[in-house]
Amino acid sequence: MVPGQAGNSRRQAKARATRRRVIEAAERLFTEYGYPAPTIDAIAGAADVPLPTLYRLFGVKRALLAAVLDTTFGGDDQPIAFAVAALQARGALDPGLGSSEAAGMVYALLSPDVHRLSPLNGTAYRDVTYCNSQTLDVYVPGSAATRPLPLAIFVHGGGMTGDKADLPPAFLNALARAGFAVASLNYRLAVPTLNYRLAPSNQFPAQIEDLKCGIRYLRAHAQTYDINPAKIFAFGPSFGGQLATLAALTGGHSKFDVGPYATTSSAIAAAVDMFGPSDLSGWAEQAHPQDFHIIYGGSRANLALASPVRYVKANAPPILIIQGTADTTVPESQSAALYGKLSAAGDQTQLILVQNMGHMFAQVDYVPIYPSFTQITADMVNWFKQHGAES
User: Fold this and answer.
1) Global pTM?
2) What is the dihedral of CA 325, 328, 330, 334, to 10 degrees?
């Protein structure tokens, strides 16, 4: 080998080793930070690689790296849908790429194993129309040994914003590896109006009506998606957690069960509530006045109607509650109230308090949350397993 070629080989080997170090640091921080993603500065620091070097090594991925790693996924200010729009505006993503695929690319960039299922080595049914012209996605893993499959339904947060594409890939993959089919559904969003004479559209209870109709739809089409109609679960963050809990506590046939598939039950076997409000009366009107007027129509009766604590009774489905101790959007007292009511009724419940976690899994003061996002995900999967999925 001539001297020049030897030098090039050494530089290439050094570049490959540095790239590997960056990827390993990113994967390590993803495990420690969980969700949302660590910053690009944190990854560069952990890998002991200057930012210009990191950018140079990743070449055409520079714009994607910068946009992805500086974005707080799932946060109130920039959910995944907004992040995808930002990436597309920078020319880092194909504008025609769907939100789910774009989110998968984000995670796959730093950890090739995170999204390798794509989709779950099985079948993805996307944008299926169900009740009230809403859409849902169903992911059916191909490798699960036991059939038909238990089904976990993701209910996104928001109420006025949000989308089924907000399903975190970490949740999707963990459930798929555990042998679950996963559904993520849209529901009618409350829409404000510029005309003060007109009330906002799609006020509560439209959202819980759609969720329960979605459950009925999936149960009625269980054979199509190879799911077990007796093993349906629900989980979600924030407003989605509130809706999942309402679905659990209101049973299979309630005043919220309107529309198609009326004879089919909307009951679920268990739920995981991630920092969802539970007692809106006397709290939401002051804490979230915009939600009070737009989602609940300025009606205190609607606040009571939407409060899960009002529906607690004995023999309710098991409910796991995840709550950040530093959450100022939905404070710890909301989860504590639900946990107290369920415990007093003799229901199966557990409250996991996550240290250093604000709303939507955000870390506070750059301190990793504890337990980690990885552990929270495992706790959710195990909750579903323990309460019906493996029976």
Assistant:
1) 0.73
2) 60
